[in-house]
Amino acid sequence: MKGVYVDIGGNTKLYCRIYGTLGAESIVLLHGWAGSSLILERYAKLLPKGFGAVAFDLKGFGNSSKPENGYGLPTLADEVYRAAKKLGLKHAIVVGHSMGGQVAMYMAIRHKRFVNKLVVVDSAEKPSRLVPLWVKEANRDYKSLVIRVVASLFDSISKKELDRFTHEGLKMSKSSVIGTLRAIMRIRLEGRLKEIGCSTLLIFGVHDKNRSISELRGLNKKLKGSKLVIIKKSKHCPMYENTKSFSHYLNKFITNQ
Questions:
Q1: What angle do CA 34, 35, 36 make, to 5 degrees?
Q2: Contact between 203 and 121 (Cβ < 8 Å)
Q3: Mean per-residue pLDDT for 229-238?
Q4: What are the residue boundaries of the structural domains of the chain, listed by start?
Q5: What value does the mean pLDDT take over residues 88-92?
Q6: Which of 53, 143, 206, 242 could disulfide-link to 19, CB 3.0 to 4.6 Å?
Q7: What backbone phi and psi angles, to 5 degrees, belong to 31?
Q8: Domain 2-254 has CATH 3.40.50.2000
Q9: Strand arrangement, sheet containing 92-97
Q10: SS3 of 112, please?
Q11: What's the longest Cα–Cα distance across the chain?
């Protein structure tokens, strides 16, 4: 793994972790809210042969820049696209988890020629029912909110692992916490799903409490030709809690098996 910063202009730099060699067959990995590229490292070590991957810290998260504003999800999608192009990617398979799944869908709509395939993990075209409550809580005590949300994402990880992910979540600033939550509330994807023409895989952790299987099944029906798989023994982060099953389904999709 190699960690690098990509300057995308406007005093903004995105941090990313590069796995393998980026080339014609590359994978872009996007984390969810209160996360960072670190959550995708287990999967990134099990990439299909011949594929490189780049896992980004979205603006406002992890080691990336945290400005006061500019957190609309279409904006985040455009920034990832610009960063990926600066890294030399011409096309990519884009994998997005939770909020990152919504960013990935915007990428598939706004940058059709770039996104060869789309993977949406534990996400949907509408905000989670929990987000309005989180916005209110963030205004009172955003750090407590981040700590609580991170703890809710997993079923079975050690205290050491949880502390590690909590530390990543707390790298957010108050502006990025509130800005991204408000941006999630403003998403307008439902009427644009028909614009997604690439092959799409939907993945759901069976014990997820932040999203429901009915939401994923609904998205599955709206995205023509998409496929839905359910990962056992995982909550909101199947790529970490059940990496073996997650990588099995994802790598089959990537390699057309």
A1: 140
A2: yes
A3: 96
A4: 2-254
A5: 96
A6: 53
A7: -80, 175
A8: no
A9: 2-9, 12-19, 52-56, 26-30, 92-97, 115-121, 199-205, 227-231
A10: coil
A11: 49
